[in-house]
Amino acid sequence: MEKVKLATSWLDACAGCEMSLLDVDEFIIDLAQAVEFTRSPITDIKEFPEVTVGLITGAIGNVDQEEEAKELRARCKILIVLGDCACFGGICAMRNAFSKEEVLRRAYIESESTKEGKIPSSPEIPALLEKAVPVDAVVKVDCFVPGCPPRAGDIKYALGELLQGRIPVLPSDMMRFD
Amino acid sequence: MAEKKEIKLTINSREARGKEGDTILDICRANDIYVPTLCHLEGLSVVGACRLCVVEIEGERRINPACTYPARDGLVVRTDTEQLEKYRRLMLELIFTERNHFCFFCAASGDCELQKLAYQYQMDHARYQYTFPTLPTDTLNDFLVVDHNRCILCGRCVRVCAEVVSSHTLSFANRGWRTMVVADLNQPLGESSCISCGACVQACPTGAIFSKTSAYRGRTNEGKIIRSLCSLCGMSCDIDVLIKDNNIVRIDGANLTRPKGQLCRKGRFEQVYREAPRIATPLVAAEGQTIKASSWEEAFELARRGIEAYRRRYGANSIAGFASSLCPTETLEAFAKLMRDTIGTSLVDTLDGSAYRTLTQGMSKFSKNGQGLETESPLESILKSDCIIVVGCNPLQSHPVAGCYMLQAQIHDRAQLVVIDWQQNSLGARADLWLRPNENGMGDLISALASMLNRRGKRSKQTQGAVSLASAALASGLDETLLEQAANMLAAAKKGVVVYGNGLWGKKDAACVRGVLELASLVHSNGPKAIALKPWGNSRGAWELGIASKDEVTDAKPKLVYLLLADQEFGGEDFVFRVAEQAEFLIVQASYTSPLTEVADVVLPSPIWAEREGTYISVDGKAGRSKRILEPLPGIKDDLEIFAQMTQRLQKRRPMLWKR
Question: What contacts B452, CB < 8 A, 6 or more positions away?
């Protein structure tokens, strides 16, 4: 059987979701047999090829992440998002109580460990969006797996269902927002 | 009251029965038909704020909330259609996008009703744009945090504060999506009229109001809930204690919306844990040295040698025992037995003995057996009273739940609330009338009020000589017209009840207690009805058992003092300190270290309230049982076992004494 092509994208996130993905234990072997990981944190491929499944972790907080989400959406048939940040905004959205300027000033100038700080202004650094938003605020999402991070079992269930050709919705007893 | 007519409805194609006046939700609940709710809380009024309970009613143009819809005979209702479930999920999505609901660091996560419903409705994302409003968090109260980010405006806190606690501190400000729960006129909670009873914490379905003492200590499903009673102040409120890993996580009122289920600041928060260090091992003072840890054997022996030496040299009555009325009846009885029978002293008292003496002396005229407890009225009579007279105490501080009963009667049932107190009094500030005489004018003021009631045709068997208005005004420093106003108010009462407390026995003013009871007999057609708010959880029990002494024990100048302090907080009270200072040899049995344990010769560790069990007699004489909730710390013996071992050691040595 031909392998299903999967590309992942790690946006405004802490890596907890990726860790949880690795936490699926021996299912990772089944997964590797059924799925071809194209672009992912471990393959170092820069561009998204055309894939069946796109997987995003993290919210969208800057222009680069916005572009990357749109790019992946354009090149995948099914888009699944993992974690509270991607589903609801999560930790990243907590900065939304403040203006972009306040957030940058706090991080680069006022933080306790900073001496003579400066807000970076290089055009090579992607600009922050006014608010960090969930992925489905920018592109259409087909499947959501919330959790901070989602339990390995939730990810296994969701990917397992996708491999069976079904778009899953997590059952009530699996749902976790923490 | 006439029996309400039964009605029959068809709910989800099944017959469901209820009573006239029920709402559709009432009937669903009574017939085990599940309807999700958020803003509804059993015992509070219904407002239909959350719209989760929407149902389809045949003949109605649109869907309606079940909680506010009055049921009628013959209604055909559906609670479970696909359309309704769709609307319910929609409601949840609107709630989640309206404010900032971040579960991952919320203290309520795992115990949150909103979160549970989101799981149930598989709400893995929201289809609406998040508003991400910037909202404040109020952390200034000592025990409560209000995080408006998580507030869903269900109003359960507002209603419980108004309808049960009757403090009316919380309310809504502004309109529409700018609506906010505020305290008073938008004050921080810590600076408002809030009495920190925590009813709002218990009522809050989310993490919008949470307790500083319980946050992050554990979730309900990780622990075990034990029903017991709060033994702190003698209100004997029913509590549900959540424990996890032998620690108290949280204390809830057993039934928030019923009397004795609501709790107060002390019962809900201050009992969860205490900062003072526990005494984990016995301590003994070596000759001329500071007190240090020892074995039980060493401590028992030192105590025994001390007791025997003083008994031999000065006689058994050189030894006195004082017990805290925070101990259960069984412990108090065993302590009295040890002191009286084994040691042989007649000097046994409770730490609140002077309150007992003041009270019984004042009550004697109204009593057949000399204890006077027959003047005592049940606490619930406050709720049924038309005039509540509070003398020399502030129940909102000392017995907050009793204070709330008063506010409830005053605000909801239009009882008159009159406070007579010379001290600063937060209940006085809420009363219909606060008579604040000179510090020494209380007795005169009360006699004057009695005389004025006599002149208004109110008489009782105990009516005393008249006190003129002018002399009362002079003695109390109050205006004559104010006194007239008070007398008119009291004269109208038919079911008046008098509540009095620490201010009277603080001054050992038995005459004033007598005056108070006289006044009580004039304001109730079948009086006197009075409630003495006794100092500790089992004060009444100790008094009924006759453990509190009729005479002042300190007058006998005991040389060896055995102080059973248990987990009563030592606040440097004059009395306890005087006793300790006077003693040449001091044995302290206590749970926490304090200046007292520093000066003791022997310290025996005592379990705290949650580690012991026993009977408590409430302020109004009802027996209840406090359960053991926690395993005692390793090495801690039960108080009863300590007394048993002391008894054994003292008895074993007795023949030797006789030989001499």
Answer: B469, B483, B484, B487, B491
- ipTM reported for the complex, 2 dp: 0.95
Low-confidence ranges of chain B (pLDDT < 50): 659-660
CA distances from B108 to B128, B234, B263 (A): 24, 31, 20
- Averages of pLDDT over runs of 10 residues in chain A (178 residues) are 91 93 90 92 89 97 97 97 96 94 96 93 94 97 97 95 94 95
Residues of A whose CB is below 8 A from B96 = 88
Q: How many domains does chain A have?
A: 1
What CATH architecture is B6-80? Roll (3.10)
Query: How would CATH label the architecture of B355-532?
Result: 3-Layer(aba) Sandwich (3.40)
Query: Which domain does A153 fall in, by range?
Result: 4-94+132-175
> Is A157 near chain B, with CB under 8 Å?
no
Residue of B104, B106, B132 lying closest to A96 (CB–CB): B132
Q: Give the chain B residue whose CA is nearest to the CA of A86.
A: B125
pLDDT number for residue B654: 52
Cβ-nearest to A89 among B115, B130, B133: B130
At B369 the pLDDT is: 67
Radius of gyration, CA atoms only, chain B: 29
Fold of the B283-350+539-655 domain: Rossmann fold (3.40.50)
Residue from the list A87, A90, A98 with its beta carbon closest to the beta carbon of B124: A87
User: Which residues of chain A lie closer than 8 angstroms to B103, CB-CB?
Assistant: 84, 148, 177-178
Structure confidence at residue B61 (pLDDT): 95
Position A64 in a domain: yes
How distant is the Cα of A134 from the closest Cα of chain B, in angstroms?
9
End-to-end alpha carbon distance in chain A: 37
Please name the fold of domain B132-270: Alpha-Beta Plaits (3.30.70)
Give the residue among B416, B411, B408 at the shortest CA–CA distance from B388: B416
Asked if the Cβ–Cβ distance from B122 to A170 is below 8 Å, we say: yes
